[in-house]
Amino acid sequence: MSAFAPATGMLTAPRALINALVQETVSGDGDALAVDALLAEVGAGSLAAPHPALAAALEPLRVPIIGVRLAKTGFLMPGWIGDGRFTLHVHRHPTGEDDQLVTIPAGRMLTFLLWLLDVGPRPRDPRPPETVVPGEALNRAIAFRLGDRDSAGLLPPPLDDAIAHGFRDWWLASARWPAAGNRPGSFTLEVVDTDAGLWALEQREDGTTVVRPVTPLRVMLALADLVPDRELVDDTAPRLPLEDTPVLGGQVQWVGDALR
Q1: Rounded distance between C-alpha atoms, residue 215 and residue 210, angstroms
Q2: CA distance readout (Å), 215 to 4, 80, 157, 189, 191
Q3: pTM value?
Q4: pLDDT digit of tens for each residue in the chain (260 aa)?
Q5: Would 116 be classed as within a structural domain?
Q6: How many domains are contained in the chain?
Q7: Rounded to whole angstroms, how far apart are CA atoms 190 and 9?
């Protein structure tokens, strides 16, 4: 069921309609008629004259400074940070019947992500400081667990047991911004969450993945890096280039491929 919350600017609607709204807002190539019908139905105005709360939610899409891609439970969700505001297209269920466009002050983004990704206290049992595994095997094990399939035997111990018998979730958070000079213009954090604790993943160019235990505190500090320090951002750029701006989400390809 579609709905609009004027107090928060949150829009709930089928994925296809929120996708159309995002496409129309970011690049002007969405189904404007379908979006206008949706906005009229829920009392959120129109594309030409949106409700003020919806207009605030859409402003980071119109003039993004940072593009965010958040993948969780096998699905990629696009997000945008503008001038003091963060908006995220939340995929609530795989079927996409009740997605949400959620907006909050940018200063609350870290707290929101810690809640959404369920980053909290975890066991501190001894674990190897580093495990190198074939990236394809790790992806397959993660995809199997996301699909509620058995993954035992795909990875070396103790990582194999942690994922096969204590898997909680997999997620990835990345951000891109117009870089100042030769400074970094992106940041990515990829994590597997298990009953044994959190594991940070580092993808290497040779196709292997380095898996390291990581504490919730380290994860929290790393998530804060999704918003770069001022000196990393080109303050002469009017916005993130269109080609770098997230638009659509959906199932992560390697997850879908493994579960076919």
Answers
A1: 16
A2: 38, 27, 20, 13, 11
A3: 0.94
A4: 899 999 999 999 999 999 999 999 999 999 999 999 999 999 999 999 999 999 999 999 999 999 999 999 999 999 999 999 999 999 999 999 999 999 999 999 999 999 999 999 988 888 999 999 999 999 999 999 999 999 999 999 999 999 999 999 999 999 999 999 999 999 999 999 999 999 999 999 999 999 999 999 999 999 999 999 999 999 999 999 999 999 999 999 999 999 98
A5: no
A6: 2
A7: 29
**Dihedral through CA 100, CA 222, CA 160, CA 209, nearest 10?**
100
In angstroms, rounded to a whole number, what is the distance separating the alpha carbons of residues 36 and 45? Answer: 8
Whether 234 contacts 122, CB under 8 Å: no
Would strands 75-81 and 85-90 be described as parallel, antiparallel, or unpaired?
antiparallel
Alpha helix (H) residue ranges in the chain: 15-26, 32-42, 52-62, 109-116, 135-146, 159-166, 216-223, 253-259
In a domain, 113, yes or no: no
E strand or H helix at 77, and its extent? strand 75-81
Phi-psi region of 4 (alpha: psi -120 to 50; beta: other; left: phi over 0): beta
- Judge whether 111 lies within some domain: no
Place of tokens 């929120």: 18
Say if residues 31 and 20 touch (Cβ distance below 8 Å). yes
CB atoms within 10 A of CB 238: 9
Kindly state whether residues 139 and 251 are assigned to the same domain: yes
Domain that holds residue 200: 131-259
What does the angle CA 220 – CA 225 – CA 226 come to, to the nearest 5 degrees? 100
Beta-bridged to residue 174, according to DSSP, are: 69, 188
**What stretch of H or E contains 250?**
strand 250-251
φ, ψ of residue 2 to 5 degrees: the values are -80, 145
